[in-house]
Amino acid sequence: MTDSSPTLMPQAERRGKILAVVSGKGGSGKTMLAVSLAQGLAIADRTVMLVDADFATGGLSYYLTFREFGNSRVGISDLLDHYESVPPLETWAAQKSFDDLEYDSLWMSNIRLAPIGDQRRFSTADRSPLEAIADIIRQAADLADIVIVDCRGGIDIESLGVCQLSDEILIVVETDTTSIRTSQHLIEVLAEYRIKSKVVGFVLNKVMDDPTPLAKTVGALLSIGYLGAVPFDIEATRSYIQGRIPSPSSLFSRQIFSIIPKIYKKIDRFKSGRVISPEEFGSVTLKSPEAGAGGVFIFGISLYLSAIYIWVTYSGVGYRILSWQYLDVAVMIISNILLVLALSDATKQILGRFVRGQNQAIVRFFGLKRQR
């Protein structure tokens, strides 16, 4: 098989390492995973360039330009026609201004995006999409510490070309049979192109049970290393639907962050945020984090009221104010109200959003004070 991939400057002559995020089929969640990898690297004080190389859907561009980076007017497709007149990537890669960021999201200033642009041009342009993406990756590698390329799900010539240009390849695998078999085929193709050695490992995504048995099976089938598993997280899914990057404290992000030191050995393990054990996967999926926070809030209120009731009872204050009969009735009513609230997920979610909103406001307030 002939190698017709575009050339790239040697690592010694460029600044950044290039990571291709691929999957055997579409819908594996690699786009969100790529973004969370960039988020973790940015928090670790690395500059990151996210490159959208999905010429079919442009999922990364549509995801991030909806809210996070605004609508970018220049994209990779502009390099297909009259590319000599397109300014350097440094001038048009999307980036959030440092002054526009809150204290707890200053890491966003370390991330830039090279969006796909107008996809309709790819079918009519004289220049091949792979030439355009190679040009962008070449520029990105000279601008950022790490370049993360979100490839198209499945196997196509552009994705293979990106893999040939990259220093490392990360494979995202879902837990269904189709994803596993297509990933196996992807590995075979990478081996044919003699670039399987670039694969740093695979990540199991959307896991809803203990991933250990499946990880062993997939690892044996693909003959590559297992980096970790990511649970199906409602909060992260909601963020994706809303066009937002999940919070660094979310379950999804914490699991992704734990994978980063396995890819980049020089980056220390993240200290903040607990990573769940394999046995906990089944108990954390399909649970709303706001409902959990609301449940903790109700539990705290219950303890507080119980302490007051005990103090009032034994001090005799309540007896002087109300008769025991009325006091017991009041306690019974409050207990029933708390019980109803505790059984209602909708109510717990509302309370949880309120509590988390207050916590974020406090963090922003004190963070801005420290910044001043």
Quickly list its features.
single chain, 372 residues, alpha/beta, Rossmann fold, 8 strands, disordered C terminus
Question: SSE layout and pairings?
Answer:
Blueprint: E1 17-23, H1 30-43, E2 48-53, H2 59-64, H3 89-92, E3 94-95, E4 111-114, H4 129-140, E5 146-151, H5 157-165, E6 168-173, H6 177-192, E7 199-207, H7 212-222, E8 226-231, H8 234-241, H9 251-257, H10 260-263, H11 281-284, H12 289-315, H13 317-321, H14 324-343, H15 345-371
Parallel strand pairs: 1-5, 1-6, 2-4, 2-5, 6-7, 7-8
Antiparallel strand pairs: 3-4
Helix pairs in contact: 1-9, 4-5, 12-14, 12-15
> For this structure, what is the CATH class of the largest domain?
Alpha Beta
> How many strands in all?
8
Count of helical stretches: 15
Q: Please trace the helix and strand order, writing H or E for each element.
A: EHEHHEEHEHEHEHEHHHHHHHH
In whole angstroms, how far apart are the ends? 60 Å
Indicate the multimeric state.
single chain
The CATH topology label of the largest domain is: Rossmann fold
